[in-house]
Amino acid sequence: MKKSKRGIDKKVGSPPGTLIYTGDKNEEFEITVIDYNASGYRKIKIKDVDECESFKDPSTVTWIDVVGLHRVDAIEKIGKTYNLHPLVLEDILNIHQRAKIEYFEDYIFIVLKMLTYDDKSHEIESEQISMVLGDGFVFTFQERISDIFDPIRDRIENDKGAIRKRGADYLLHALIDIIVDHYYVILEKLGEEIESLESAVITNPSHDTVQAIHKFKSNLISMRRSAWPLREVLSQLSKGDSRLITEALLYFRDVYDHTIQAIDTVEMFRDMASSLLDIYLSSISNKTNEIMKVLTIIATIFIPLTLIAGIYGMNFKYMPELEWRYGYPMVLIVMFVIGIGMVVYFKRKGWM
Fold first, then answer.
1. Do 294 and 274 fall within a single domain?
2. Burial class (CB within 10 angstroms; exposed 0-12, middle 13-18, buried 19+) of 299
3. pTM of the predicted model, to two decimals?
4. Higher pLDDT, 128 or 284
């Protein structure tokens, strides 16, 4: 899985709550606010965090999407505006977190991994997504601009489905659900990849095939590392232990089931990948055995021919056949007959 580890060493020795971004710095930074209810909708891009104060309306649901975690000052200001614990802000900026959920008195903090598949390198790339669910609002924190949430924005803007008629917990469910759905897109690509690997292992096993299998297994490990902790997060959300989760309780259980299915598929692919390595080793062994069989047959045919050639190559003075006029062609004929006879014998035995 592609993910830089640079920057994490900056946190070594720092006291808890120290705000340090551990990812790669980029120039992208924007805050998009989508505020809606059953009767209205508005989308605004803001430049100052202070503008978020105007959206604290209990009659609407507010989705604040923050892109660009390198702006530590902005993240810190958001934390002060919405009374987020310093340890929460620290986890938002530390992009090497394991998927988890933490309950606070006024909000729920969630960390999970968004996965994408690079069709050129055939590798899975990961991005940490942090979410905060509060009374009537949802925060999402991303490292870079992504289009994965565009279907949610479209549903809100065009009033598709029930999202405009439900609360912030339903919005949180929709965001997590689309991330889990994207896991299935990746699994479909991995399924196509393993089919091609199976064909390559059986028809033409090579060193490149082994490398492709190892890369495939590495992708599965990455998916497993992301999906298993997410299962725990959704298990907690589906229990309804927080007053902030009301309308979407059943929907979280549905997403939990989808996550279990994704994990089962990953485990199945892992077993298939292990089997592919066994098939590869068997194919290579069979190929080597076929080569050795051909070489053995050739060597066996030439053993008696070499014996005859060796006898008549000793050049002793008193060898009656050496003075015979037809000795040379007769020896060639005998050698030819012996060779053909052995080939016929091997074929009858099924050795060729």
1. no
2. exposed
3. 0.79
4. 128
